[in-house]
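Look over this today:
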Amino acid sequence: MYSKLRALACTKRGYRGRQYTTQEKEFKWKSQSNNNPRFYSRFSDYEISPWTVAAFGVAFSIPLGILIKKLCNGTNIVIASTRSEPKFHLKSLPFGTRELEPWISEDTVITHYDKHHRGYVNKLNSLLENQGEVGSLEGIVMREKKGDIFNMAAQVYNHDFYWDSMSPRGGGRPSGEIARMIDESFGSFEEFQKQFHDLSISHFGSGWTWLTYDPSLKILKILTTHDAKTPLTKGLHPILVCDIWEHAYYLDVRNEKGKYINRWWNVVNWSFANENLSKAKSFK
């Protein structure tokens, strides 16, 4: 059978009335007058067409498959991957992509989450691929302090916290302990909103606006951080965060950051803020 395939698929060199040079016997593709590519091998006296490859592939793959099946005797074979399991996975959104509308559009949520947030997770996993146990995101942030790994880990942490800081059932005035602490730390809710808004607007470049708890003074503080930086490295406990990178709002309001901040107040997750405040005050 193989001799017939060879006869059908191959033609003797010089068949078209000329001899081939040594250089032409190297591995390469050529086109004949009928535009069919031919593959020339330095180890053979034959020119072999792509049909040869297909014919021999079928001829050998069938008996080889039968042989493997007999050797395995029905046993399932698992081929282990050399690629390590990702250290971190993209956290699911705590709401549907449309649920923050009309304040934050579905387009913004999808782009922000599936492009930017996912990109940070993928880059972090790539940087950590050959490392052993790395611990939690918070641990990496506190340990690294700066550099590529810090930037990726902090951005993943910050985005996780950002999505949790919003809720379709959020907005309005806070209640519970967070409301009491806001009045105690800023004088009133309105004054807190004004300071938060003004700091966000005056922040130059990319970053984040945070409501934090200072355990040493036992009060709430507002601060902005540049790029990937977080309050964790300053000894402060995050309570809420607003992403003021341009990709968080540009699709909706272009460069009107103030408009975005005003909309953001309608989705603030005060329940999440109360949970974080409770944890921060009980932290030892």
Remarks:
- The longest helix spans residues 50-72.
- Residues 173 and 256 are 24 Å apart (CA to CA).
